[in-house]
Amino acid sequence: MTLIFTVILVALIFEYINGFHDTANSIATVVSTKVLTPRQAVVMAASTNLIGALWGTAVAKTIASGLIDARVASQEVLICALMGAIVWNLVTWYWGLPSSSSHALVGGLVGAAVAAAGKWNVVIWSVPDKTHWYNGKGLLWKVVVPMFGSPSVGFVLGFVIMSLLYGLLRDWKPRWVNAVFGKAQMVSAAGMGFMHGTNDAQKTMGIVALALAAGTKNGRLDNLPAWLDFLHVHPPEPGHDLSIATWIKVTCALVMAAGTAAGGWRIIKTLGHKMVRLQPVHGFAAETSSATIIGLASHFGIPVSTTHNISASIMGVGAAKRFSALRWTIVERMAWAWMLTIPVSGAIAWFLLRLLQWTGQAPPPGLS
After folding, report:
1. What would the pLDDT profile of 218-265 be if each residue is shown by its tens digit?
2. Residue 22 to residues 62, 131, 282, 353: CA-CA distances in angstroms?
């Protein structure tokens, strides 16, 4: 039982770090354009994150049952997966790099699962749906394709929206543009915060539900007092997704909102100031592009990277002005962080579980 509560505690620590690590995703542009002060932006982001986190559970179900074989989803695996993601998040936060908490968690899950099974086929690589391509499950359809596809679409959409705005506003005076889009950007930034909550907060919900379902299945929660019966999460029937209890959704949403309120100023500086110089109209275009993509992904249960999408949208907006407006050295550093996130977080999780196995704190490799 202690192990299960440890999983929940580490999961909530990850959720808190995710909140302050990814705060910049929803407020960097609105801060850098001086539409809102940092304090005002953080309050808005925390509030909209909270509402968005309670909106649905499609992404949580993907994390809980669509990436690794449920037979290896032990408490030890989940702890090591979360620790791999936490370590990578803190490293990239320290260096001010906007990496993906989503992909760090996925990498951690994959690395720990492979260490637990001792082989690669424990990872659900691809389960396509013959009727609708977007219903396919597994690492390919839910992670790899969106990993490359969503930032590409974000770049193009940001470029198109900004180009259209340049055409529509060419006769406007600069002060009118700033006045109108200063107000419009508050709406787009709130939308970005909401969509961030619909996707990012749900990943930890899936981990907590998975840990409790495993504990219920193996009998570790059998001796709980009656007032803790709500902790029992029964594994799903074959062909069905794991259900996410309301208390899990509320707890994870509140923790992410608290993390968001703590801020993430290092990453805000990279996204909002170093990569390209932004005005309110640019911020509006970038946030609208990114929020649209994240909203669609959340609807279909795809755990996309909020970081990748807003960064790519900002790049697209900057490129619409001129490609030389982008500071390519910063873009290159971000690209390296993106590419390294899954393998490095996976390697950390793999090493941690191997260490537990070596010291006898986790079962030896193999499927139960």
Report:
1. 777 878 788 888 888 877 666 666 778 888 888 988 888 888 777 665
2. 20, 35, 20, 27
Two tokens, residue 194 = 């909401």
Place of tokens 């709406």: 187
**Tokens 């062909």 appear where?**
239
What residues contact residue 328 under an 8 Å CB cut-off, 6+ apart?
A: none
Q: Residues 13, 84: contact at Cβ < 8 Å?
A: no
Tell how far CA 25 is from the center of its chain. 10
Alpha helices, DSSP H, located in the chain:
2-32, 38-53, 58-65, 75-94, 101-117, 139, 145-168, 174-217, 246-262, 265-269, 280-299, 306-321, 328-358
**Domain edges within the chain:** 2-358
- Yes or no: say if 18 and 204 are a contact pair by the CB < 8 Å rule: yes
Report pLDDT for 304.
83
108, 346 contact by CB (below 8 A): yes
Alpha-carbon distance of 250 to 204, in angstroms, equals 12
Q: Minimum mean pLDDT among 238-242, 285-289, 309-313, 356-360: which range?
A: 238-242
Closest C-alpha to 106, from 194, 240, 206: 206
Find tokens 């990277």 and name the residue: 305
Q: Report the alpha-carbon distance of residue 5 to residue 1 in Å, rounded.
A: 6
